[in-house]
Task: structure prediction
Amino acid sequence: MAPKISPLLSISVLLLSLSLLLPPSSTTTNTHLIGKEVNREIER
Result:
């Protein structure tokens, strides 16, 4: 029922809220780590 992109969408929303809550320095690190996780999921 839920569209297949839903997990990626929730990750993006989570990433957005993280970047709003955290200081820029740690945000870039988290963005990089989450980006690698997303890429790993897409490659599967």
